[in-house]
Design a protein that fits this description.
alpha/beta, Rossmann fold, 10 helices
């Protein structure tokens, strides 16, 4: 199985295909498996890399480093270790935040960012963070089963929801530290400084991070665009994979055109 030791932590990844590299970052508590529909289609046209960031999926579950800065440092080292040349980073939910912060920290490293249903800032989201932190610590199983269905649009397959809950329960408990990080997180003041092109993709029915968040972030980001995936909630790459893949291709083509014109 493919692992790289990054900052003393074994990280699981998958790397297939050739061409423009696309690096996919999953959301909180899940794994690179959430990008299966993208891997299957896009591997024929791109170099597709999925990563289980620390604490999640098949990667190590260290007690330390579960911070915004810690994960971004992992990503910088991982991109360099694999020799990814200006990858386009596609992140969903907290993965979109990691991608945005990566672009702000090292703009010359990336070819673009596709921020899917993120990045977030509180109090834009509905559920109080204090409640999430408390319930995930003391009532993890029952709370995850109650919370996760809200991530998806009405009518989503119960099997997909149950699988998502299982991934979260299989992840390390130390990733809950990320909730404390985001209690005061707000990227809006720094978005005007973003030099890396970014495209916001958002599920129209997202009840976790309202679509207005994407529109506000785009308004603060030079040259940013917003694509709405109708009928999708917080996980559009799984809920509406064909529509999502089409939107992703358009965004990637836009980055390529902009780079050629520069």
């Amino acid at each position: 199985m493919p692992y790289r030791t990054i900052n003393d932590t074994q990280l699981y990844y998958e790397d297939e295909g050739t061409g423009q590299p696309l690096l996919f970052l999953h959301g909180w508590g899940t794994s690179g498996r959430t990008w299966g529909a993208q891997q299957a289609e896009l591997v024929h046209d791109f170099r597709v890399v999925t990563l289980d960031w620390r604490g999640c999926g098949r990667s190590d579950r260290p007690v330390a480093g579960n911070t915004l800065e810690g994960v971004v440092a992992d990503l910088v080292a991982f991109i360099r270790e694999l020799g990814l040349q200006r990858p386009i980073v596609v992140g969903v939910s907290i993965g979109a935040t990691f991608a945005t912060e990566l672009a702000l920290a090292d703009p010359d490293l990336l070819g673009g960012v596709i921020a899917v249903d993120g990045p977030a800032y509180w109090p834009a989201q509905g559920m109080p963070l204090a409640e999430v932190i408390h319930e995930m610590r003391y009532n993890r199983v029952s709370f995850a089963a109650q919370w996760v269905p809200n991530w998806f649009a009405p009518g989503t397959s119960p099997t997909l929801i149950e699988w998502t809950v299982r991934q979260i329960l299989d992840a390390g408990v130390y990733i809950d530290e990320q909730f404390h990080v985001f209690a005061e997180y707000d990227p809006r003041p720094r978005l005007p400084e973003l030099r890396t092109p970014i495209h916001y993709v958002h599920g129209a029915l997202d009840a976790e991070i309202p679509i207005e968040v994407a529109r506000v972030c785009a308004a603060h980001t030079p040259g940013a665009e917003v694509t709405v995936i109708e009928g999708a909630g917080h996980m559009p790459q799984q809920e509406k994979p064909a529509e999502f893949n089409a939107a992703l291709r358009i965004a990637v083509a836009g980055f390529t055109t902009d780079a050629a014109d520069a």
